[in-house]
Write a structure and sequence with these properties.
The chain is of the alpha+beta class. The protein contains 10 helices and 10 strands. β5 and β6 form a beta hairpin.
Length: 248
């Protein structure tokens, strides 16, 4: 783990393996959480949110949270004193947002310790971008209640994308209708839609790490790359190849 601390700011860089977890904790400073690689699950009283590749999470100071690493992850955390952001925005709730190319470059530069004389200005610009970047409109929640949470964690671990609502209901010993009602209440969407988004999130990670679109589509349970690309574009606004070329 690498870290840097000053009177105003702190930065932490650490790699995690799939399945590792940072137990419930909170910080006296606001935290900007980003993964160069990997998928994270952030749990707070405001919900359980998946942080996909090319996304970041803003966590206000004082909010207790747990981070679970759903795949091998290279985590980067920047911490901000209230004096840095109080004139830019109010930090009251967590926010998942797209880590644009500029945001990613600023984070990378800060961790590479380049241009030390411009560090304060880069951090200020980063805060302005956090404030102006819209919350991600494809946010995915993870249920908190058991045994649904454990069953879904197992599904994600084994990438069991073919699991049907009936099969999930059987594992939980409930009727499909009861499952649908509880699932929508817990996540805001049906199991089918939730599974669809999760498949795309895990596929996004593979493509970001260099896997071909065609093989990734098959592994994600799609019949062909064309069908996968259409669904990917519907969620992320561009096809897989263009997504990593543009400032999403």
């Amino acid at each position: 783990m690498q870290s840097e601390t000053s009177d105003k700011w702190q930065s932490v860089s650490k790699d995690y393996i799939a399945g590792e977890m940072r137990p419930a904790h909170k910080h006296s400073r606001a935290q900007l959480l980003y993964a160069c690689e990997g998928i994270m699950l952030a749990t707070t009283r405001q919900g359980r949110r998946i942080i996909a590749p090319y996304q970041a999470l803003w966590i206000p100071s004082g909010i207790e949270h747990t981070i679970t690493f759903l795949s091998a992850t290279k985590m980067r955390s920047l911490y901000f004193d209230k004096s840095e952001y109080k004139d830019i925005f109010e930090s009251k709730s967590i926010k998942v947002f797209a880590a644009t190319a500029l945001i990613r470059e600023l984070i990378a530069t800060l961790f590479q310790h380049q241009f030390p004389g411009a560090k304060q200005e880069m951090r200020h610009l980063l805060l302005l971008l956090v404030q102006e970047t819209k919350a991600f409109n494809a946010d995915v929640l993870m249920p908190e209640e058991e045994p649904l949470r454990s069953v879904l964690n197992d599904l994600l671990h084994h990438r069991a994308w073919s699991t049907s609502a009936q099969e999930l209901a059987n594992k939980l010993n409930v009727t499909p209708r009861t499952l649908t009602r509880h699932f929508i209440r817990a996540t805001g969407m049906s199991f089918r839609d939730w599974k669809h988004r999760m498949r795309l999130i895990f596929a996004l990670e593979k493509i970001a790490n260099g896997s071909p679109v065609k093989s990734t589509a098959i592994q994600a349970g799609y019949s062909d790359a064309s069908a996968f690309s259409i669904q990917f574009k519907n969620l992320y606004g561009s096809c897989p190849r263009d997504f990593f070329k543009s400032d999403n």
